[in-house]
Design brief:
Blueprint (H helix, E strand, L loop, with lengths): L7 H34 L13 H25 L3 H31 L11 H32 L9 H27 L1
Helix pairs in contact: 1-4, 1-5, 2-3, 2-5, 3-4, 4-5
Length: about 190
C-alpha cells in the first residue's frame, strides 16, 4: 500500500498511528534495557535471591487486564454509535486505571514493610530495580490515563461515531500496550526474581 495515497483524513490517521507505534517502540527499548540490566545485575554477590513479589502487584495485574477488557467494550459501544454506553465503559476503565496505580503503591508499601527500600542503607540493587521499573511503568499509566480522559471527553462531546473513532483506536492501542507491558514485567520479576 502506498502511504502517500488516500484522503487527507486517511493520511493523518496513518501518520498518528505511526507516531504512536514509534513511541511504543521507544518505550519497549527502554524497558528492554532495564530488564536486561536486571538480568546482568542478578549475578552480583549482593543480589537478593528467592524474593516473593508483593500480593498487591498480582492484584494490580488482574485489575489492568480487566481494564483492557472494559476499554474494548467501550470501543465496541462507540463503534455501534452507542456513546452513552461507551462513556460508562470508559469511566469504568478510568476507575480501574486509578485503582491499578493505588494498588501499585500498596505493593510499594508491602515492600517497605518487608524492610526493602529504593535507596538508602537498607536498600539493595534488586529492590532498586523493582521500584524503578514499576514506578516508571506507573508514570506511563498516568499518561495512559490522561489519554483516556481525552477519549472520554471527546466521547461525551459526541466527537466519535462508527466512522470516526481514531482517537479511541489510538487510546486503546496505548492502553493495551501498557497492559501487556505490565504483564511482561510481572512475569519477568516472577521468573527472574
Amino acid at each position: 500500500m502506498d502511504l502517500t495515497q488516500g484522503t487527507n483524513k486517511e493520511k493523518k490517521a496513518r501518520a498518528k498511528k505511526m507516531m504512536l507505534w514509534f513511541g511504543i517502540a521507544s518505550l519497549l527499548m527502554g524497558f528492554a534495557g532495564w530488564t536486561s540490566a536486571y538480568i546482568v545485575s542478578s549475578s552480583r554477590a549482593d543480589w537478593l535471591k528467592d524474593f516473593v513479589l508483593p500480593s498487591a502487584f498480582l492484584l494490580s495485574t488482574a485489575i489492568i487486564i480487566l481494564s483492557s477488557g472494559t476499554y474494548i467494550l467501550a470501543k465496541k459501544a462507540i463503534r455501534a454509535n452507542n456513546a452513552g454506553l461507551g462513556t460508562k465503559w470508559l469511566f469504568l476503565t478510568l476507575i480501574l486505571g486509578i485503582a491499578f496505580i493505588i494498588i501499585q503503591f500498596s505493593g510499594f508499601s508491602q515492600l517497605i514493610e518487608q524492610g526493602y527500600y529504593f535507596t538508602g542503607p537498607t536498600s539493595n540493587i534488586t529492590m532498586s530495580y523493582i521500584f524503578l521499573i514499576a514506578a516508571v511503568h506507573i508514570v506511563h499509566v498516568i499518561s495512559g490515563l490522561i489519554s483516556l480522559l481525552v477519549v472520554l471527553y471527546n466521547n461525551i462531546r459526541g466527537n466519535y461515531s462508527a466512522n470516526n473513532i481514531l482517537g479511541v483506536e489510538l487510546g486503546i492501542t496505548f492502553w493495551h500496550f501498557l497492559d501487556l507491558l505490565w504483564v511482561y514485567l510481572i512475569l519477568f520479576f516472577y521468573f527472574f526474581g
